[in-house]
Design goal:
two-stranded parallel sheet; zinc; Adenine_glyco; 192 residues; mainly alpha; 2 strands; Endonuclease III, domain 1; DNA-3-methyladenine glycosylase activity
């Protein structure tokens, strides 16, 4: 069994993310919010940059507890002057804004998990990727989810950010079919 080409960078954080998280169906509301926030931060940057700053981002954003993040001030010097994180004002504001959206949904009895997974009838989509060259930047599903998320109040959720979010959360399985994780994840899915 092989490994997805993108995970062969030699970076330990990238390899661990690939081996332990990416593409694994996630149903934890806090983790879903964390992954969305990381994708917001990643926009225009490399994923490796985000993973290198993930620990600091978790500390700065209260371990991505969306109830706590929802009450944060996007202009806080603790965020804007924190050199350990990605200090993009628009991205910081979007994370806090999205936390408020997720928290408000929860207050209305809608979990972020149900909100996200309903788009695929609670069943991950398997693209049966043979080579990383086949990985799209986005697709029709991501475009539709992006439109819905924007109309429901989320920000910084364009189709490319959403597609990466879908891959990270396992809504879409884009592991290459010859990757050991592809078979592990398919085994996970077949057990449910």
């Amino acid at each position: 069994m092989g490994l997805c080409k993108w995970a062969n960078s030699g970076n330990e954080l990238m390899l661990r993310y690939h081996d332990e998280e990416w593409g694994t169906p996630c149903h934890d509301n806090r983790m879903l919010f964390e992954l969305l926030s990381l994708e917001v931060m990643q926009s225009g940057l490399s994923w490796q940059t985000v993973l290198n700053k993930r620990k600091a981002l978790k500390e700065a954003f209260c371990d991505f507890d969306y109830a706590q993040v929802s009450s944060m001030n996007p202009l806080s010097p603790d965020l804007l002057e924190n050199s350990a994180i990605i200090r993009n004002k628009r991205k910081i504001a979007a994370i806090i804004h999205n936390a408020r959206v997720v928290y408000d949904m929860q207050q209305r009895g809608i979990s972020f998990d149900d909100y996200l997974w309903k788009f695929v009838d609670f069943k991950p989509i398997d693209h049966r990727i043979k080579s990383s060259d086949e990985l799209p930047a986005t697709d029709e599903l991501a475009v539709n989810i992006s439109k819905s998320m924007k109309s429901d109040g989320f920000s910084f959720v364009g189709p490319v950010v959403v597609y990466s979010f879908l891959e990270g959360t396992g809504v879409v399985n884009d592991h290459e079919v010859n990757c050991f994780r592809y078979l592990e994840i398919m085994g996970l899915l077949n057990c449910k």
